[in-house]
Design a protein that fits this description.
Protein name: PA2779 family protein
Keywords: Coiled coil, Membrane, Signal, Transmembrane, Transmembrane helix
Number of helices: 7
Shape: flat
Distance between the termini: 49 Å
InterPro entries: PA2779-like (IPR046735), UCP029543 (IPR016924)
Amino acid sequence: MKRFKQILAATLIVSTTHVAFVQTAQATMIGTEQVAQGAASRSGQDARNHLNDMFSRADVQARLENLGVNAADARDRVAALTDEDAARLSEQIDKAPAGGFIEVIIFIFLVLLLTDILGFTKVFPFTRSIR
């Protein structure tokens, strides 16, 4: 019973100290103009400039060439986009993860390495099984 009281007292002390950290939230109505402004965070011309800056980078041009796309054709297509499409594409590029597929490859390599070490598979010749 004494141990229970000690645990209860410790729990109450911790919980009462965390009460001071509770923050309140306030919600207010926002106007249509603010919503429209937030949705169109980047105007069409700004988005086109951002996309053209992206396509002018050497690494992007090299990747486009590897994929069989001419950089001039890409700029022409950007110029032909509507303002909404240019803004949407610019947002998608900004939100895209850097590196992309590398994390998956590293994860698969580590799983295969671990299964080799544990003796379940024999994929890599440089590993020795613990079995």
